[in-house]
Write a structure and sequence with these properties.
Layout: H1 2-8, E1 12-14, H2 22-48, H3 52-72, E2 75-77, H4 82-104, H5 110-135, E3 139-141, H6 149-173, H7 178-197, E4 201-203, H8 206-241
Antiparallel strand pairs: 1-2, 3-4
Helix pairs in contact: 2-4, 2-5, 3-4, 5-6, 5-8, 6-8, 7-8
């Protein structure tokens, strides 16, 4: 949703005043709000089975916070409206509770596991990639989609995250041998080299590209660990029920 409404459609702006670049500064606010706080709240709602009336109260609370931020000048709507936030915070927990129930079931169907791993990886890698690009200004992407270089950079990086997430989810869900993981990382490295040759990827040195690949290897390992935990929990539940 953030790729569409925030990066591509410029729905709102955060103004935490942390970074000089206004779009990167806004991205920091979006990462904290929609990358940590909202997902954490939805996870708690799903895990503890919080009832609908409390979900409504939580949604109203978030709407009040949003209006307060607007009043304080640290948040600004473009075409977004506070009511959209309320609707989202009613729908997202419902989706979260449904996914949580499916996740806790034994013998989860493969498409569900693939989708879950994809969603988890988008969150993990999106956080790593955004933080990396915000911290190291000597590396980034210039596809030429937007006039604002910062927005251009994060839009293309987000697209890469979604593509990588599908590849990583396939690798982990199929329990691929480490050789296949090495091949995928090698292909990513070749892809970054090609983007550099096309002047879409700019960097002050290939060391930063290598570091980015190492972060992606870390994400694969984390995703594999999470997948093992999910599989073990599912197997334990299956044994208890049988």
């Amino acid at each position: 949703m953030e790729l569409v409404i925030f990066v591509l459609l410029n729905s709102y702006s955060y103004k935490p005043g942390i970074l000089r670049n206004s779009f990167y500064d806004s991205a920091i606010g979006a990462i904290v709000s929609n990358g940590f706080i909202v997902p954490s709240t939805c996870t708690l709602i799903a895990a503890f089975g919080i009832r609908f009336r409390w979900i409504l109260l939580i949604a109203v609370g978030f709407m009040c916070i949003e209006q307060t931020f607007i009043y304080l000048g640290v948040f600004e709507h473009h075409w977004w409206k506070t009511i959209y936030t309320g609707i989202g915070l009613i729908l997202l927990p419902a989706i979260g509770k449904w996914l949580w129930k499916k996740l806790c079931q034994p013998n989860q169907p493969y498409p569900l596991r693939l989708i879950m791993l994809y969603i988890i990886n988008v969150s993990l890698q999106g956080t790593f990639m955004s933080g990396y690009l915000l911290l190291f200004h000597q590396i980034g992407f210039r596809p030429g989609w937007f006039e604002d270089p910062a927005r251009d950079n994060l839009a293309f990086a987000t697209l890469i995250v979604h593509i990588d997430s599908l590849l990583f989810a396939l690798l982990i869900s199929l329990r691929s041998h480490w050789i296949w993981k090495a091949i995928v990382i090698g292909l990513l490295g070749c892809g970054y080299w090609w983007l550099s040759r096309r002047e879409i990827l700019y960097t002050s040195g290939m060391g930063l590209v290598v570091l980015m690949l190492m972060l992606q290897i870390l994400v694969i390992q984390l995703l594999g660990g999470l997948h093992r935990i999910i599989a073990e929990k599912s197997s334990m539940r299956f044994r208890r029920e049988n």
